[in-house]
Specification:
Chain lengths: 399, 399
């Protein structure tokens, strides 16, 4: 019988035009905001000006911090922490995609973190030291993908000491106080990145679904509900980016896919994300594109040990019937991969523009992944747990 | 396009045996707990002793307040508020079903409420004055039904000034800080009340589902997921009360049915609950039993104006296909009513042991309901909005 604790205190303000309410939301938490952004697309789209205008109208002054990378780096986060300490900001606003929001959370916690910031992150070889205090964070997503706007996680690339290790932290103090979610801010996202976002959302759901090994039935139904909605509305958002209804449904999917609602009672292990993190740390490929390649490959590997669960997935999501359990399991994965292709995602490593990795690279990806997380037997946790050789086999299945 | 705000800060500690963690949960919020209970079943089941022992072990002293009625009355709540003021309790623990938890919330807010406590509640003829402060509340449900353990609502019967009006309040300060949810505490609930609880949960979900008129697709899928789970596990919980897995699935269903997750983006109007509140204020019938009678009757009435939505319900829940849209809509309601019958719920007024109401009583039920809530045209809000005559027709459809 499942046992769990659930807690998510983030307030959501959702709807077209809600960015106008940003200032009102932020002024309860601070008077001087560090406004964290990425490479400048929010300036081109007008989102930045609207956010600043709303903040200033509410009496909140703004210090801009730009330049968060697509796979955000700890060195950049550290520069932002210095900026907060120098300028005296008392609240952090993250306006952007998952990278910007993830970085904002660590900036907010970094202000109070004593000692080396690298110790905040999961790493197999040593004990993690969680942050216990953070400035208030308000998130404003401009992409439907990571769900970072309403969760307590952050994925960061450690780029110091000659290495490049993409790892993560989850801590209660990292929950944003408010997420201002305006689907209109996502209408300028191009079709390819819209599709990568959908791939990311789907991976959050499938990684949860295939970890529901104790059979917690409502959680399965919720997960299936998100996938079915994405199959219906995802292609519309890709094809017709201006369709705000489709954008809203995909955005809500991204939030509920990783805000803990479908994870309650399930030990989320996320092996596909772990392998993808290594891949995108190495090649800087978009996270959702990497997942579209690795997720079906992992499924082809994992269905051998849990054909029943994959057959259920095939039946409930794609209405697959007939044949043996194994036949249905295989067919479900095939249809899942087909869906990713139809929305324009790559599903093979060669389509990522990085060529097929050679043997040494395969070894490195597997080893770097296990540097972040491994169980006592040295395997990557998951169902099934993965040895180094298993990870390499999954990568080969993605070729 | 939907717009909404969502916020639910209640922490859930879920699992068999979790009542042992009650003291640890409460001591963060206070040192002296008012332990609110109902008529004594928690003493017979041993839950009371386990709760007290856990509280005392954590250094929390306990003041008992017993005697909350099944349809809790304001006069009783007021006595409890006096008890808190006299004894100096700084936290309120509600151990029981929905009545006890609802009463606990209003007790906690009543301590700080200035002026007449009746003004806290919804009433058509005057403006409601919401509470803005409350003592911390911790809930420990012993019945899977109302979902009160993780929401900000409370249903109270005003029993003063010669009237008996069952009404409600929803306010942000009423969210419990923690819900300690131990499905083992529900194994002693007899089959009839287990079934009434399931009827209540189903009504929360169907009232939400039939208010999703702007077509917010994930919310439909989530709602359907809860119903499908109850159809599968509800009968097992009724038949085999000792099955802790079944109890856990029904308990989790009760929580997610009314903690805002499926209501996000939907204006919940709950006309069936409104009519049932009047019925149970008048006759003191169990809330879930009253709902089992009124919900299918309301559905038979409402499907005339929204056959498409009811046909979708029939298809997705019961796999009904073929025939006209109207045929499928009618068939879905019939199957829903049949399910309630199979778990032992009454589905007609005459089965409630109150006889069929006469014309004067029908008039009174309709009028009392509209005293709590009515729109500018004097109708009970819902899809469709209901005139006094409509409410009487629904009651007749329940005969």
């Amino acid at each position: 019988m499942m046992r769990f604790e659930f807690f998510n205190p983030t307030r959501i303000i959702f709807g077209a035009g809600s960015v106008e309410q940003l200032g009102d939301a932020v002024r309860h938490y601070g008077k001087k905001a560090l406004l964290v952004i990425g490479g400048g697309s929010v300036k081109r789209s007008g989102a930045f000006d609207r956010a600043v205008s709303s903040l200033e109208k509410a009496g909140v002054s703004v210090v801009e911090f730009s330049g968060i990378e697509p796979n955000p780096r700890l060195s950049t986060v550290k520069r932002a922490v210095s900026e907060v300490l120098k300028s005296g900001c008392d609240v952090v606003v993250g306006l952007g995609g998952g990278s910007v929001m993830d970085a904002s959370k660590v900036i907010a916690a970094g202000v109070y973190y004593e000692g080396d910031l690298t110790e905040m992150f999961v790493r197999a070889e040593r004990k993690q030291r969680l942050p216990d205090r953070a400035l208030p964070v308000v998130t404003v997503p401009t992409l439907a993908a990571t769900g970072s706007e309403m969760n307590n996680g952050s994925v960061i690339t450690i780029d110091e000491g000659g290495e490049r290790l993409k790892t993560f932290v989850m801590a209660e103090v990292l929950y944003p106080r408010v997420a201002v979610v305006d689907p209109e801010l996502t209408v300028t996202v191009p079709p390819d990145f819209t599709a990568y976002g959908i791939s990311d959302i789907l991976a959050h759901v499938t990684e949860t679904y295939f970890c529901n090994v104790e059979e917690f039935p409502i959680q399965d139904r919720f997960a299936e509900g998100i996938i079915l909605t994405l199959l219906e509305w995802g292609p519309i958002a890709v094809r017709d980016g201006q369709n705000v209804d489709a954008r809203a449904h995909v955005q809500w999917a991204s939030i509920v896919a990783l805000n803990g609602w479908i994870q309650a009672g399930i030990r989320l292990l996320a092996p596909v994300h772990m392998i993808e993190h290594t891949l995108s740390a190495l090649y800087d490929v978009p996270h959702g594109a990497g997942l579209a390649v690795l997720n079906p490959a992992w499924m082809r590997f994992a269905l051998r040990s849990a054909p029943g669960r994959f057959a259920k997935f095939a039946e409930r999501i794609f209405g697959v019937t007939g044949g043996s359990l194994e036949d249905r399991a295989v067919e479900g994965v095939k249809r899942f991969e087909d869906f990713l292709k139809t929305i324009g995602c790559p599903t093979r490593l060669s389509e990522l523009g990085i060529g097929d990795p050679d043997d040494a690279t395969l070894q490195q990806i597997a080893e770097d992944t296990l540097k972040v997380r491994r169980d006592r037997e040295g395997r990557l946790p998951g169902y099934p747990a993965l040895t180094k050789e298993d990870i390499i086999e999954i990568l080969r299945l993605a070729m």
